[in-house]
Amino acid sequence: MSARLRVHDIAHARAGDKGDISNISVWVYDPKDYPLLKKQLTAERVKAAFPRLIRGEVLRYELDRLHGVNFVLHDTLEGGVNRSMNLDSHGKSFSYLILGLELDAD
Amino acid sequence: MKRSLRIACGAGFSSDRLEPAVELAQRGALDYLIFECLGERTMAFAHRDRMLDGAKGYNPHVAQRMRAVLPACRRHGTVVVTNMGAANPLAAAHLTVGIARELGLAGLKVACIEGDDVTRQIGPDTPLHDRQGNVRDVGLPVVGANAYLGAEALLPALKSGADVVLAGRVADPSLFVAPLAHGFQWTMDDWQLLGRATAVGHLLECGMQVTGGYFADPGFKDVPRLVDCGFPIAEVNFDGGFVVTKLPDSGGCVTTATVKEQLLYEVHDPASYLTPDVTADFSAVQIEQAGDDRVRVTGADGNRRPDRLKVTIGFDGGFLAESGISYAGPNAQARARLAGEIVWQRLSRNNALQGDLRIDMIGVNSLHGTAHQQATDTEDVRLRVALRSRRREEIDTMLWEVEALLCCGPAGGGGYRASVSPCVVTHSALIAREQVRPTLRMFTA
């Protein structure tokens, strides 16, 4: 059985909002961890992890040169900053949702 | 023409800190100091302020900021560019001229840019861009509408020798693109250079978010002296390459990691970041550490600008009321949950609520509650009840029921607090460039 680690152990992230779309960029600290991140932290994985939060499409853009990926989560902010009833109406804390996911260390 | 320019950010949002901006004005040896103070939320609230008092509607900190930085900026020949005019740039310009006179800065030239307010061009049939349907379908009164002006709107003011440029809704990076294009005499169809200038603006526009603010995660991402974190400076070369840095004795840090996080902040496709000036392409950007707290950024590119401009429309959403009560110690979660259930029942039984009601347990599920129900063993829980409604009597009923939990709810509830604030809902639309006519007025102190 391979060891488990959290995305937070190998990467950092920041979330931004525009209307009802949240984007979360995730960057590995050490370039050697980038293939692992790219292989396991897919758009499908993120979408499946939070079905009640992410109501729309999830896209992933890859920045191989900078060792990071950018997730774009549609229909995720309960209508956006001026409509959401969530305490965190910007979804600023969503970066740590992704950092809390587990990966196989393999 | 200069071969390089020093441009810095003195505010990255409406309520940003003041001291680091003063430090920059005094010791930054700056050509330009930019204050970016508008978001979708703040613009909407500025419209509300102006409706209540025709002399208001600009950023509430204009006077403090101008008073604090103008003497040093005058001394060093630093030009100030800002969107602090918000929904009333003219009033902000008059205020600034008055302050300049008080400070003895006779001759200071203050430019006022208007024309972003397109409220009169928005009608019930205007189609929306961020959802199906048109303005009428939202079913709420329009408070105001602003088009995102680009760098071109600011160039005439800079060419006329303005010391302060006060505008309303200008796209955030354009506040930086305009002084760079002016200073280096770039043409407004050189997409590659405009793409690079947009990278400068994008990285700096949120202030400390690139110098160690919004970054610290103790034990994982430590930031030295966050308490005294400095605002960012860009040293921009005439070819559009640049270094992000800060005052050497300020706190914080500029590293490849802080720059990467900010590079994609609020960006979707890195190869297609739309602004009024250019379709910027950050997909091939290179970021390298070039010294302590110095990061070199190269390789940004750009393509033709979009044909239409984005418009943000604010609608009157009534009130947002929030109230809460706390439970602690053994079985705190169960007591908070019970409190939430009975508030819900009492409100839905006695009052046909038309507004949106939401109940959270802070400490258990308030932020990511919609993502996954988390069972935690916290013994410090706060019940939050939020209601958005256009009917004030509904708001008051909700607040009453939550306060009544003090005697009529589960055991040990305490710390009731409540707040009611006006609520503005926003949506976006697109408008043809020809329909938006920026204007310039110059005033001399």
What does this structure look like?
The complex is a heterodimer of chains A (106) and B (445). Chain A has a single domain (4-104), classed as 2-Layer Sandwich (Alpha-Beta Plaits). Chain A is 22% helix and 32% strand. Chain A is built from four helices and six strands. Chain A has helices at 7-10, 34-40, 43-49, 95-99, and strands at residues 4-6, 11-18, 21-28, 58-63, 68-73, 102-104. Chain A has a four-stranded antiparallel sheet with strand order 2-3-5-4. Chain A has a two-stranded antiparallel sheet with strand order 1-6. The longest helix of chain A has 7 residues, at 34-40. In chain B, a hairpin with a 4-residue loop joins strand 7 and strand 8 (242-245). With 445 residues, chain B is α+β, with helices and mostly antiparallel strands. Chain B is built from eleven helices and 18 strands. Chain B is 29% helix and 27% strand. Chain B has helices at residues 19-27, 40-52, 62-76, 89-102, 135-138, 155-159, 174-184, 191-204, 256-263, 332-350, 392-408, and strands at residues 4-11, 32-35, 79-82, 109-114, 142-147, 164-166, 233-237, 242-245, 273-274, 279-281, 286-289, 295-298, 301-303, 308-328, 356-362, 380-389, 414-432, 439-444. Chains A and B meet through strand 2, strand 3, strand 4 and strand 5 of A and helix 2, helix 9, strand 15, strand 16 and strand 17 of B.
